[in-house]
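User: What would this chain look like folded?
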Amino acid sequence: MLDDLDRELWERGLRFVRYADDVRVFVRSKRAAERVLGSVARVIETRLHLVVNREKSRVVPASVMTMLGFGFYFVRGGGVRVRVDPRAIARLKIRIKELTSRRWSIAMDERITAINRYITGWMGYFRLADTPRVFRELDKWFHRRMRQIRWKEWKRWSAKYRNLKALGIGDRQAREWAASSKGYWRIAGSAVLQRALPTSYWDDQGLKLLKPTWQKLRSA
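Assistant: Here's the prediction, encoded as structure tokens.
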């Protein structure tokens, strides 16, 4: 039935996108948007005999509009780029927190398999987003979550000291940090643990990150 609405919008020369009963129409001004909203609502209600949700139907700038997890932002020169809805990013962080919970007792290789499956699926959906900086910042946070898991796995002073030494940390610093009483999150953000567990370490573990996965999918 909504195919009739699509034809009506096409005949009017309007730019729009529709998914099921969720429609977005793009025009150049607020006045035009208000006029189109009224006329489209009349078509839906009088010709198609459907009810328009007046609370959800509104005029908003394209830069704050979202649909199916995507939004838009403007760049210098009048260009338009695709972004990820902040609510989608919030949901991503919630899921990654679950997958990187210190309370979840699971082998690291199994954890990485579960994480990789989620990251691949999420980025496969959002690969159209033009936000490499956002993905890079998320990866920094994600790395820190992984470092705190590894630090907890080492548990005892002897294991922490031995592993820090094996990962290139000097004897004195290895002893000091192995004996530290600071919390997991704080130590995970320390320069010492960042040196011990850099990106290359996680690459060797087979961990997939957001930005590299995005780059791979974009170039495919």
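The CA atoms of residues 173 and 192 lie 8 Å apart. If you want, I can go into more detail on any region.
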